[in-house]
Amino acid sequence: MLKAIENDFTLGEMVLLADDRNNLAHNETEPTQKSLGNCKTLAFGAGEKFMEIVVSDK
């Protein structure tokens, strides 16, 4: 998802976000405030970019 939609994350940030998301999705770690915050940041960022694409297509 991070590579599919243009974003402002560095490669290092993308790796950390993907790791947090994967660990949470596969129940491999206890959620921390930081990992949940990272997933929230990712979700909001993806949502914003998606809406920009939808609006620009009209």
Q: Any overview of this molecule?
A:
The structure is a single chain. With 58 residues, this protein is mostly helical. It has one domain (11-56). It is 67% helix and 0% strand. It contains 2 helices and no strands. The chain has helices spanning 11-25, 33-56. α1 (11-25) crosses α2 (33-56). The radius of gyration is 13 Å and the shape is elongated. The chain starts with 10 loop residues before the first helix and ends with a helix.
Give the helices and strands, then pairings.
Blueprint: H1 11-25, H2 33-56
Helix pairs in contact: 1-2
Look at the structure and give the mean pLDDT.
80
Uncertain runs are none
Q: Which descriptor suits the 3D outline?
A: elongated
Oligomerization status of the protein chains: single chain
Taken together, the total number of domains comes to: 1
The share of residues in extended strands comes to under 5%
Descriptors:
58 residues, mainly alpha, elongated, single chain
Short description:
With 58 residues, this protein is mostly helical. It has helices at residues 11-25, 33-56. The protein has two helices and no strands.
